[in-house]
Specification:
Layout (H helix, E strand, L loop, with lengths): L1 H8 L3 H14 L4 H13 L3 H14 L4 H13 L3 H14 L4 H13 L3 H14 L4 H13 L3 H14 L4 H13 L4
Length: about 180
């Protein structure tokens, strides 16, 4: 298990996978080996297998926040937004003040075109961490969907004040200015 952890840190994912498989052959109920095996499979873009790994870990420990959170992130990559939302909801039931989970939950809602709820999700993340540039950026994107261009511009400006190198915030700021006919 520890060898697998070290190999994962070195981005040697195939070798890490082999180590986790060996650990699980000895102790099939090793919840963290199951979870980390899922992470490695996710890194290898073997999403269906990664999902099975996360689910196996959660079958043993349904309160494993990390598995729920990373499962949600992976489901977002797979465009399975309803499933991702359910994972984030379960994760937030365990750790309600997790800023990234709140932000990512907002992104799932945005993808589902539930813009009002997405905006509330980003605002709840920002209430916990007002300097979270990614939540400000995502908030701006949702405001653009709602044709609230001045507010979107303000969100992008706040994100850029925190992280001036945020390329997509700069790009989308330009889109907001274009929508406002401030050419």
């Amino acid at each position: 298990f520890n060898r697998g952890n070290t190999l994962m840190e070195l981005n040697r994912f195939e070798d890490a996978l082999a180590s986790y498989d060996r650990a699980l052959a000895i102790r099939p109920d090793h919840v963290m080996a199951l979870y980390n095996r899922g992470r490695v499979l996710n890194a290898l873009k073997r999403f269906d297998e990664a999902l099975a790994g996360y689910d196996s870990a959660l079958a043993i420990n349904p309160e494993l926040f990390e598995a729920l959170f990373n499962r949600g992130n992976m489901l977002m990559e797979m465009n399975r937004f309803e499933d991702a939302l359910a994972s984030y909801d379960r994760a937030l039931a365990i750790q309600p003040d997790h800023v990234m989970a709140r932000n990512n939950r907002g992104s799932a809602l945005n993808a589902l075109k539930r813009f009002g709820e997405a905006l509330a999700g980003y605002d709840s993340a920002l209430a916990l961490r007002p300097d979270f540039a990614e939540a400000l950026f995502n908030r701006g994107n949702t405001l653009m969907e709602l044709n609230r261009f001045e507010e979107a511009l303000a969100s992008y400006d706040r994100a850029l004040a925190i992280r001036p190198d945020h390329v997509m915030a700069r790009n989308n700021r330009g889109s907001a200015l274009n929508a406002l006919k401030r050419f």
